[in-house]
Amino acid sequence: MEVGKQNVSQLETRSGRTAREAMKFIIPSLLGVLLFLLPVTYEGNMTIGVGIFASYFQGVLEGVLPLFMTVVFGVSALVAIYTKMFKPQWIVNQSFLKGLFDVGYFWIAVRVLGSIFAVMTVNGSGPEWIISDFTGGTVLYSLVPVLATWFLFAGLLMPLLLDFGLMDFFGTLLQKIMKPLFQLPGRSSIDALASWMGSGTVGVLITTKQFEEGYYTKREAAVIATNFSVASIAFSLVIVSFIGLESMFVQLYGTVVIAGIAAAVICPRIPPLSRKKDTYYEPVGMQISETVPENVSRFQWGFEKAVEKASEVKSVGEVTKKGLQNVLDIWFGLIPLVMALGTIALVVAEYTPVFDILAYPIVPLLELLQIPQAADAAPAMIVGFADMFLPAVVGSGIESELTRFVIAAMSLTQLIYMSEIGILLIKSKIPISFLDLFIIFIQRTIITLPIVALLAHFFFM
């Protein structure tokens, strides 16, 4: 009798502990879904919870953010120089601070350049080609505030997606779809959803963190970052509105999805992505297993792995610290590079004939696809490599609605643009070079253009 009572007591204790562990997975993960993956309407625009926080914060500090981030750029550059010259113990003995400020000479130079561009733009003094509304002004007043606010909340709240088992749960459930179709682990579906509902840059941030923690191989991380960091629905609405095709949004976004899936199937199977090594980030090694044991349902095993992952989180303080480190890494390590390299990319696009020259071979292809005003549209097919919004700027003056439709759809399917995504990837530990990014951009253009053109002709019959 005593033994029976003991067994019941042990069972109750075990059940109680399991319930607590399950709640530790379910509640934070549900919050993560609500904040990152659930589309909501805010001030007439479709966004996500994190986007609402970012938009509100950006609105409140609209006049202050460019100046504040200019100060951040200056501190980032000065502390990096100080660290390189004097090797202070309080920095070099702290792994996070060392990684943030003990950087190579090239990255120090880029931080300094970003600071100089920002100071010039804020003061309105310097060469027009640097501080104009189409170059430095665009980056500092339009792009930087968006990145600063989005990454503030995305960085702080991202552990809800990554650390409490949600990736493990969905990874197990969706492995049978993602693996054969895209040669990727199931958890990559969360990256794609976070991009689709919120921001492509958030998707890249999730991918880089997962790679650095041993959940993606080098090839998988490169594939996900260049093929699944899709433009958000909110940004797509902005593009469609700017180019004057609001009534065609459903058709346009459907076209983007179809063309994007085709590119995501083909690009990983050809160089340079197919030649990336299927090895994990060396300092951490492989930290993932999506193999489901026999006689266990996929849902049950995914839930079990998720609860196990959530149980590794020891305290709220640990999660908060990780989130703050994410934000500081982006503000001090990444956004100064966006200011420097993004400005340079826009200067090249606006003040040199480089993209016009690169666009010449596109003209016969557009004519073959029977796209009206092919010569005017061709630069828009290439200029997106500098910034995703530039094709809409180039195409907004074109009379043909069909041509504007093609330009808008292509700007959303090409995905690789240096003012933001490209810099994120080059700065990350994912082994992908500038040349890789340019080749993938061209590949995605060649793959998706015929699909977009075919559907455009169908919609404008």
TrEMBL record:
<feature type="domain" description="Nucleoside transporter/FeoB GTPase Gate">
    <location>
        <begin position="146"/>
        <end position="245"/>
    </location>
</feature>
<feature type="transmembrane region" description="Helical">
    <location>
        <begin position="221"/>
        <end position="243"/>
    </location>
</feature>
<dbReference type="Pfam" id="PF07670">
    <property type="entry name" value="Gate"/>
</dbReference>
<keyword id="KW-0472">Membrane</keyword>
<feature type="transmembrane region" description="Helical">
    <location>
        <begin position="249"/>
        <end position="267"/>
    </location>
</feature>
<keyword id="KW-0812">Transmembrane</keyword>
<feature type="transmembrane region" description="Helical">
    <location>
        <begin position="103"/>
        <end position="120"/>
    </location>
</feature>
<feature type="transmembrane region" description="Helical">
    <location>
        <begin position="140"/>
        <end position="162"/>
    </location>
</feature>
<dbReference type="InterPro" id="IPR011642">
    <property type="entry name" value="Gate_dom"/>
</dbReference>
<feature type="transmembrane region" description="Helical">
    <location>
        <begin position="330"/>
        <end position="349"/>
    </location>
</feature>
<feature type="transmembrane region" description="Helical">
    <location>
        <begin position="438"/>
        <end position="460"/>
    </location>
</feature>
<protein>
    <submittedName>
        <fullName>YjiH family protein</fullName>
    </submittedName>
</protein>
<feature type="transmembrane region" description="Helical">
    <location>
        <begin position="405"/>
        <end position="426"/>
    </location>
</feature>
<feature type="transmembrane region" description="Helical">
    <location>
        <begin position="60"/>
        <end position="82"/>
    </location>
</feature>
<keyword id="KW-1133">Transmembrane helix</keyword>
<feature type="transmembrane region" description="Helical">
    <location>
        <begin position="21"/>
        <end position="40"/>
    </location>
</feature>
